[in-house]
Amino acid sequence: MGKDKKFITVLLGKPRFLRHDPPSELWRYTTNSCILDFFAYLPKKPGAPKVYSVKCCILPSYQNAEIANLPKTIGFMIF
């Protein structure tokens, strides 16, 4: 938590979908097997939005042992 968009972009690349609803943003990454959403808020002091929540949805057709560990792997890399 608390990472900025630059950190996430270096780690995962450009989001496939980006939504701005000030003061929040949604950064969505998708693959054939999952959807990964990062929710960020603009800080009260000037600066880049910081991640405050992450949601990972694994698509039913890909729920196997390898994919089931993805949220743990992403969490380890980010937090």
End-to-end span in angstroms? 6 Å
Number of beta strands: 4
The overall pLDDT, averaged over residues, is: 76
Order of helices and strands: HEEEEHH
In brief:
With 79 residues, this protein is α+β, with helices and mostly antiparallel strands.
What can you see in these coordinates?
This protein is an alpha+beta fold. 27% of the residues lie in helices and 37% in strands. The protein contains 3 helices and 4 strands; from the N terminus they run H-E-E-E-E-H-H. The protein has a 4-stranded antiparallel sheet, with no helix packed on it. The termini are close together. The model has no long low-confidence stretch (mean pLDDT 76).
Write the layout of secondary structure elements.
Blueprint: H1 5-12, E1 17-21, E2 24-30, E3 34-41, E4 50-58, H2 65-68, H3 70-78
Antiparallel strand pairs: 1-2, 2-3, 3-4
Could you list some keywords that capture this structure?
single chain, 79 residues, alpha+beta, four-stranded antiparallel sheet, elongated
